[in-house]
Amino acid sequence: MFLPKYPDHPTPPPAHTHTPADPAPLRRAAPQISISTGAVAAVLVGGVVLTALLAAVAVTAISVAIAAVVLRSMLRDQHRR
User: Fold this and answer.
1) Rounded CA separation 7/13 (Å)
2) What share of the chain is helix, strand, coil (3-state, %, to 5)?
3) Positive or negative: CA dihedral 65, 69, 72, 78
4) Residue 24 and residue 67: Cα distance in Å, rounded?
5) Per residue in 54-74, is it b (16+ CB within 10 Å) or e — as a string?
6) Is the pLDDT of residue 14 over 70?
7) Global confidence as pTM
8) Number of Cβ within a 10 Å radius of residue 45
């Protein structure tokens, strides 16, 4: 009397299809860029040359600073006499 009545052939629940409110924007394909080995070599050589120039400037600056300190101390000793 209080038992539920089931259908003979149960139907599956309806599949929920999710539709987004606003579709995602289409992604544009980026243009394909081909980099030649010559360009890579040029960039590497340029980096090495710039690094060498920076090192040369640093060594020169240190040398000038040391020379200035030595000259200053020599001139100071000469003025004391």
Assistant:
1) 14
2) 55, 0, 45
3) negative
4) 68
5) eeeeeeeeeeeeeeeeeeeee
6) no
7) 0.50
8) 10
